[in-house]
Amino acid sequence: MAVESGSTSASAPQPAGQTSNQLTTSSAMLAGAGLISSIGAGYSYKAQGYMQQASYAIQATENMRLASLRADKDIEYANIAYERKQKQVELESLNFKIQGNTLLRSLNKANAATRARAYANGMSGSSGSALSMANANVRNTHRDLAVVELNALASRVFGMEDATNILRSGYDQAYYTREAAIGGTQSALAGGGFAAQTGGLMAGASLVQGAMKFAETVPAGYVGQKITNLFNG
């Protein structure tokens, strides 16, 4: 009876050891699950960073495409406006030429009428008062012609200057549009790079935090013992 009692008392602590071993295994499993969750979160952060980088790159590409279209349209409209202004200058020049020809025709008619009146009155049409009146008509007409020619020259010079400014303005606008798009593209690509770097940093932080929690919960000796038992059968 004494032997049986001793045997019973010796085997009594075994359930307590088994319970402690089960709790340690449960804690290790929870810590491992937390570490795996941290690894998954880290990959998620990296994936989000890459997705943001790709989104920035797509946006930058689209902005460049639209800016190129706007710049091409600016140049196209500038060329159209330039050609329209040139046509306007040509029409104005033609109108001034018509005014000059009208003045010359009026001069010829006035001098012809002066000579006709002189001959009708029995006087010479090429001398005397008839000649004086004809010379006065010529002077007045040439003065008017000089004004018309000056106006024609000013219209042509200023008109071509306006046309050139229109064309230059269109090309300048296209240049600024492209430069703004390039600047926006560079900023977007830089933002995408920062997003990818931030995702990598957050992923690293998540992994470090998970590893530290795992190390606090599960001692390294416990893991080594489990690996040894696994290989030893």
Topology:
Blueprint: H1 2-11, H2 14-120, H3 128-217, H4 220-232
Helix pairs in contact: 2-3
Task: Describe the structure in your own words.
With 233 residues, the protein is an all-alpha fold. The protein has one domain. The protein contains four helices and no strands. The protein has helices spanning 2-11, 14-120, 128-217, 220-232. α2 (14-120) runs antiparallel to α3 (128-217). The longest helix has 107 residues, at 14-120. It is rod-shaped and about 145 Å long. The two termini are 38 Å apart.
- Structural domain count: 1
What form results from the Cα inertia axes? rod-shaped
Radius of gyration: 50 Å
How many angstroms does the end-to-end distance come to? 38 Å
Written as H for each helix and E for each strand, in order along the chain, the element string is HHHH
